[in-house]
Amino acid sequence: FGQGRLRFSTLHWRKIPICSQLKSAEESAKSAKLRMWKNYVEEEKVDRKEEEKVPTERQVNYEEVVVTEITPEGHFYAQRVQDGSKAEALLAKLRQEFEANPPLPGAYNAKKGDLCAAKFTMDDEWYRAKVEKVQGGKATVHYIDYGNRETLATTRLASLPASYASDKPFAAEYILPYVTLPKDEEYAAIALKYFKQDTAVPKLLLNVEYRIPGSPPAASLHTEKTSEGDLVRNLIREGLLIVENVKGRRQNKLLEGYKEAQEQAKREHLNIWEYGDITEDDAKEFGLGN
């Protein structure tokens, strides 16, 4: 231990007198960076990161939005209401230009990462799109002003004139705050179905609850400025979303409300809670219930 040859097991070490001496020797080896501890880096505390995920005081700054796309992972894309007309005007001008000077099919050589024009198969209209994959005469594109994706023939793509490339995407991606979809595919599909139905309205109120580096902002959606108007809370209350087990002592009213809604759904055995507490089953599976 003291020479850095062996690693000490922490299991029940406090109950064995000699173990405290061995633990001390191990700590000395760590400090001196001996042998197996040469490249040792102290593990970061997870609790602090989890705690930082929960703002102590919730900041409320509602924006009026239209939800334009729901992804299979439960993410969503939204346009600010005030930007809707701008996007439509930009695309109308692009289509007029293409109508006057039609792109030659197949002339555009699509490459991954390109910003281009794509002719959406549902309505045969041109939209701004980003190329995500090219293979075998087909391309997968992301329509940046609405959030949806599709795979189509590369002959339906064209070079985007420079004057249309400077405007930022009119749709932004978000994740739902403090919740995950059910692991069960059938219940996950039901949750997505109702989420799509709930968001298929002319206008919603969006509030960014927190941000995590490397991830889209986490935002709640509301039909009105009350807890009853919170779409996420309502899906939790119906037993269709699972509240994350956020560690740490810091809470806020939104997260507390989500937990209360989940407890109500559990008591009433709604949807994913029909046969009991599935979170307890997960804990037992990973040996956390002992």
Automatic annotation (TrEMBL):
SMART domains referenced in this protein's UniProt entry, alphabetically: TUDOR
GO CC terms of this entry: cytosol; nucleus
Protein's GO biological process: mRNA catabolic process
Domain Tudor: 109-167
PROSITE patterns in UniProt: TUDOR
Source superkingdom: Eukaryota
GO molecular function: nuclease activity; RNA binding
PANTHER family according to UniProt: EBNA2 BINDING PROTEIN P100 (PTHR12302), STAPHYLOCOCCAL NUCLEASE DOMAIN-CONTAINING PROTEIN 1 (PTHR12302:SF2)
Protein name: Tudor domain-containing protein
Organism: Callosobruchus maculatus
